[in-house]
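Sequence, structure tokens quoted for completeness.
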Amino acid sequence: MSVASKIDEAPAPRQVLLTCVQPTGGFHLGNYLGAVLNWRRMQDDYECYFGIVDLHAITQPQDPAKLRAATLELAAWYLASGLDPAKANFFIQSHVIGHTELAWVLGCLCPVGQLERMTQYKDKSAKQESIGAGLLYYPVLMAADILLYNAHAVPVGQDQKQHLELARDLAEKFNRTYSPTFNVPEPFIPQTGARIMSLADPTRKMSKSDEDPSGTLFLNDSPATLRKKIMSAVTDSGSEVLARDDKAGVTNLLHILGACTGRALPELEAEFAGQGYGAFKSAVADAVVAALEPVQQKYTELMANKNHLLAVIKTGGDAAQKTAYKTLAKVYRKVGFLERIR
């Protein structure tokens, strides 16, 4: 075989996908079904970077011991949920040199007014007497998280779309100011995925910060607790198990059952026709408990072997650092910094 033929047969580089989560506790069913299951599917199609962004977490007051514990716990939930460090680059933000350094460079290109117009900044600052500069600078650090790995695609929720737009703006501005360097990242909209709503108020997304704890199914809830929350979930005054706009609670439970079993909503509607809510909710509870049992078991095993968990974190951090150093060296050279003598 000729050299040319070998080159022709070489696989094309995979696009880079990055997604990050703050380690602030409360990993719940919405995170698992709505996000992590999709990330698990992406591992074979993209070069994935999965980050735990602890630097972002301290824009709000944190108990240091609880933050460290939550970081390790989130790493364990990631792995227990099927994210594979053999397939993806799995890192903790503060372990990688480059995030804050690139954020400074990007911040020097970013107008303060653009940051002050960020919806999340305005909402959070309106509720606080004292505002740290980190809250204002948060979107620039998020842009650095994305551009440090030259991500092509970023899965984001509605609340982060504005921040991704800033990352795109800063990538384009850097490319214009210096020379083409960064991919302009695109929001990633998965083809499949469940939007899981609160059991207490199905008009709102399931959230760890829900004022009513019965509305959120946490992955560390016991089977008995999961069943109790599901059986008390808000439905409506009727008895039909149908996915309709006027039946938000039942529709949410149908989505949960479908995501846990891999079955389509029409099939589930047909199965529970005429059965009422009791049998339906019981089936949802059975499906959730069964889906989470292996995840909870794996999480327990990982937390019982923290040396292994820390070794996985180090390996992922080393891989992320290699990419980060390459990007940072390129950026430093382009902005005019003198190369450091090693």
Summary: DSSP finds 14 helices and five strands in the chain. The beta strands are 16-21, 47-52, 89-92, 153-155, 186-188. The longest strand covers residues 16-21.
